[in-house]
Write a structure and sequence with these properties.
The chain is of the alpha+beta class. It has 17 helices and 23 strands. Strand 11 and strand 12 form a beta hairpin. 44% of the residues are buried. Residues 33-40 and 416-424 have low confidence and may be disordered.
Length: 689
C-alpha cells in the first residue's frame, strides 16, 4: 500500500521491504520428520516472528501459546518457516521457546480472545544451524512517532506469504511497553509477532501484538522490552546481552564481508532519505558504516558490570544525566541509544566517540580478548579524523586520562596504593540500590508506594524514580510491585552482587513481609538479595553518626528493647542513650503494636542505625527465647554490623532450604539506616484526581 505515504517513506519502504521480508518468519506447529523445505503441511499459521540474531527468533508469547492452553510455553517446540536465500525459496526448521515475558504467563494465561499481559514476548532458539537474514534492532529506549511499516504472514492469495503495510505510530500504552499503531491499514490474523520498522531510520522498534476489534490499527510491543529478559545468576552473562552481542556481530560481519553482493542493512541505511536537523552538515552523526562498526567493536568487549556503569559513561559523554525513565541500559550498545540528540545542539557523533573512548578504558566484567579495547580506541581515533581538530585532541587527552585511571584502579585492587575497598569485606556493595517507599492510609488497609533507584554515596542525593502507585492492599502489593522492582534490580545489580532492597517506611510497617514476597524465579525476595528496612528521611539524632561507625566495626552487643524474659516492656530514653555505641537493640514483638512501636521510635531517637526485629509467630504462646538465643550467637559470629545484611540473607536461605538450625530466624527483620545513603524526602501520593 503506497497511498498516504510521503515520498521519503515510500522510498524507505521500497528499500527496506526486501530486508525485512527476508528476516520475517511464519510460526506454526513443529514440522514432521519427513517434511520437505517449503512444505506447509505442518498446519495453519499461528503467527509471525523475525530473526533478531543468528539462531534467535522473536515473536509474541500468545503466538507460541496457540493451541497450547495446557502446555508449558518455555521449552515448547514450534515450527519456523523462513526465507533461505535470495531466490525466494523457503526452509522449515524446529525451534524451542527459550523464555516468555512476562514469566507469570507460564502459570496464568488469559482466556480465548483476551489480550495477553504485556510485554507478551517469546524468544525462540532455532535447533539447527541454518543460514538466514536478521533485522536491525533500534538502540533507542523509546520510539519516535513517525511513519512505520509492519510485516507478517498473510494468506491474501491463498498461500502464506510475508507482506508489509504502512502506518504511523500514534502513542504509547502500558507505561511505554506498548506502541499504538494507526488505522491506515488492517492488521490481519497471522501478522502477530511480526516486526514494526521505523522507516526514517531503518530499524525495528516493535513487535505486532494485536489489532483493534474494528480491524483497523492496533498495538505493538516495544523491542526495548527485551531488556526485561530474566537476569542471570551472578557471574554469568544474561540472555539479553548474549543475543544483542550476536545481533551486533552479525551485522558487523555482514558489513565487512565481500563474499556476496547482496545489500546489507548498513548499505540500505546509507541510502535512506537524510534526516533533518543536523546542523553540522553530516558531521553531527556517525555514518551507517561507522555506527555498525562501533556496535560490532563494542560487542567484542565483555559486557559492563552494571547498568550504573553505562549510565555514568553516558552522562560523562552527554554532559548531563540521561533520561531517567527508560528501561535500564544493560549493554554498551544500550548506552549509544541514550546519546541521540544530545543537549545544546552538540553532535551525536562527538558524544558517541567520547562514550566509545571511555568504554575503551573501562573496567570490564572479565578480561577482554587481547587487543579488543585497543582496536576500539584505534577506530575512535581514525573516525575522529573526519571531524573537528579540537575534538581529536580532546579524545586523545580523554584516552590518556582513562588509561592512567584504569591503571590506578588495577594497582589498588592488587593491594598497591590501596585507599579503601569498593566493598567492605563481607559487606554490601557501595553502589546503587533499589528503594521501595510505602505509605499507609491511616486506618485503611491500603498503601501508596514508590520504587526508585538510589545512586549511593558516590552520588549523594541522586534518585531515579521507576514507578509509583496508590491505594494497593497488602495482598495486592507484590503483584503491583513485580515489574517496578524488577526494573530497579536491573538498574542496580552488578555482575558481582545483587543490590540491596531498602524499604523506607514508618516503624509500624516494619512488619510488612517484603522478604517473603515471591516475585520472580519462585524464590522469596529475601533469599535472592539483602532486604533491609529504613526509617523515612527526616531528623537524625546527634549520636547517630558515632553509633553507626562504632557498630560497623564491632564487636556486637545485643540488648532486648521490648521484652524482659518474654514479658513486654517500654525502654526508658535515658537507659537507651546510655548503652554502648556498639549495641544492637532487639525487638521480638509485633512492630505495629505497643510497646514495640514506641520502642522503635525511642531507639531511633537515641541514634541507633542497626536494629533487629521480627514478625512474631502466629501462636502467641511460643517462647521468644530461641529467637534471642539464636540471634546472640549470630551477632557474636558476625563480629561487626557491616556483614549483617548478607548474613540475614543467608539465614533466610537456610530457613527456606529447611535447615532446622535456622528456623529461629523466621520473620527476622533488619533495620539498616546508613547515614551515607541519604533518602529522598518524598511525600505520600494523594490518589487519583
Amino acid at each position: 500500500m503506497t497511498e498516504g505515504r510521503t515520498a521519503g517513506s515510500a522510498r524507505a519502504f521500497e528499500l527496506l521491504e526486501p530486508l525485512v521480508q527476508a528476516a520475517t518468519v511464519r510460526v506454526h506447529a513443529p514440522p514432521g520428520g519427513y517434511e520437505a523445505p517449503g512444505s506447509y503441511s505442518s498446519g495453519p499459521t499461528w503467527g509471525s516472528g523475525f530473526f533478531i540474531a543468528p539462531g534467535w527468533v522473536l515473536t509474541c508469547a500468545h503466538v507460541v501459546g496457540e493451541g497450547g492452553a495446557a502446555v508449558r510455553l518455555t521449552g515448547r517446540e514450534v515450527g519456523i518457516t523462513f526465507s533461505s536465500g535470495g531466490n525466494g525459496s523457503t526452509g522449515t526448521v524446529t525451534g524451542r521457546v527459550e523464555c516468555v515475558l512476562p514469566e507469570r504467563l507460564e502459570d496464568r494465561r488469559p482466556g480465548r480472545r483476551a489480550l495477553w499481559d504485556l510485554p507478551d514476548l517469546a524468544l525462540i532458539r532455532v535447533l539447527a544451524p541454518v543460514s538466514h537474514a536478521c533485522v536491525w534492532l533500534t538502540d533507542r529506549s523509546r520510539p519516535r512517532f513517525d511513519e512505520v511499516a509492519y510485516f507478517g504472514c498473510t494468506e491474501d492469495l491463498g498461500t502464506p506469504e510475508i507482506t508489509g503495510r504502512t502506518t504511523r505510530l500514534r502513542g504509547t500504552a502500558g507505561n511505554g511497553a506498548a506502541i499504538r499503531l494507526g488505522d491506515d491499514d488492517e492488521i490481519e490474523p497471522g501478522m502477530s509477532g511480526g516486526p514494526v520498522v521505523d522507516l526514517a531510520r531503518g530499524e525495528v522498534v516493535g513487535v505486532v501484538k494485536a489489532r483493534r476489534h474494528t480491524g483497523a490499527g492496533g498495538l505493538a510491543v516495544s523491542v526495548a522490552q527485551l531488556r526485561t529478559l530474566p537476569m542471570p545468576a551472578r557471574g554469568r552473562t544474561g540472555l539479553y546481552r548474549r543475543v544483542m552481542q550476536a545481533h551486533d556481530l552479525h551485522h558487523y560481519d555482514q558489513h565487512l564481508s565481500d563474499l556476496n553482493s547482496r545489500r546489507t542493512w548498513t548499505d540500505v541505511h546509507d541510502e535512506l532519505p537524510a534526516e533533518d536537523g543536523d546542523p553540522y552538515g553530516g558531521r553531527g552523526r556517525l555514518t551507517p558504516g561507522e555506527r555498525t562498526t562501533l556496535c560490532g567493536l563494542l560487542a567484542e568487549l565483555p559486557p559492563p558490570g552494571s547498568s550504573e556503569v553505562v549510565r555514568a559513561l553516558v552522562e560523562a559523554a552527554r554532559g548531563e544525566e540521561p533520561d531517567p525513565h527508560p528501561l535500564a541500559p544493560l549493554s554498551w550498545r544500550d548506552g549509544l541509544g541514550l546519546l541521540h540528540d544530545p543537549p545544546g545542539g552538540a553532535g551525536e557523533a562527538a558524544a558517541m566517540l567520547r562514550y566509545a573512548t571511555d568504554v575503551s578504558v573501562a573496567d570490564y566484567r572479565e578480561p577482554p580478548t587481547p587487543g579488543a579495547d585497543e582496536e576500539l580506541w584505534d577506530w575512535v581515533r581514525a573516525t575522529a579524523e573526519r571531524l573537528w581538530r579540537p575534538l581529536r585532541r580532546e579524545l586523545g587527552e580523554r584516552h590518556e586520562r582513562g588509561l592512567a585511571e584504569r591503571e590506578r584502579r588495577r594497582r589498588a585492587s592488587a593491594g598497591q596504593a590501596v585507599r579503601g575497598p569498593a566493598r567492605p569485606s563481607g559487606g554490601l556493595p557501595t553502589g546503587a540500590s533499589a528503594l521501595l517507599q510505602l505509605w499507609a492510609h491511616g486506618w485503611e488497609d491500603v498503601y501508596d508506594w514508590k520504587v526508585s533507584v538510589l545512586a549511593g554515596p558516590a552520588h549523594p542525593g541522586r534518585v531515579r524514580a521507576v514507578d509509583s502507585g496508590v491505594r494497593a492492599t497488602l495482598r495486592e502489593l507484590p503483584e503491583a510491585l513485580r515489574a517496578p522492582l524488577a526494573e530497579a534490580f536491573r538498574a542496580s545489580d552488578t555482575h558481582e552482587a545483587a543490590a540491596v532492597l531498602e524499604v523506607a517506611v514508618e516503624p509500624e510497617l516494619f512488619g510488612v513481609p517484603v522478604d517473603e514476597w515471591v516475585l520472580v524465579g519462585g524464590v522469596p525476595l529475601g533469599v535472592q538479595r539483602p532486604v533491609v528496612f529504613r526509617h523515612p528521611a527526616g531528623r537524625r539524632a546527634p549520636a547517630a553518626a558515632a553509633r553507626w561507625a562504632r557498630v560497623q566495626a564491632g564487636p556486637l552487643l545485643d540488648e532486648r528493647a521490648d521484652c524482659v524474659r518474654g514479658r513486654p516492656r517500654s525502654p526508658a530514653p535515658g537507659w537507651l542513650a546510655g548503652l554502648p555505641d556498639n549495641t544492637v537493640p532487639v525487638h521480638c514483638r509485633a512492630a505495629a503494636l505497643e510497646p514495640t512501636l514506641g520502642a522503635l521510635h525511642a531507639v531511633r531517637d537515641a541514634g541507633y542505625g542497626v536494629v533487629v526485629g521480627r514478625r512474631p509467630p502466629a501462636d502467641p504462646g511460643v517462647s521468644c527465647a530461641p529467637f534471642h538465643r539464636g540471634l546472640r550467637e549470630e551477632l557474636a559470629e558476625a563480629g561487626r554490623a557491616e556483614v549483617l545484611p548478607l548474613r540475614f540473607q543467608a539465614l533466610r536461605g537456610r530457613a527456606y532450604g529447611a535447615d532446622p538450625d535456622a528456623y529461629w530466624a523466621a520473620g527476622a527483620t533488619l533495620v539498616w539506616d546508613d547515614p551515607a545513603r541519604a533518602l529522598p524526602e518524598d511525600e505520600p501520593l494523594q490518589g487519583d484526581l
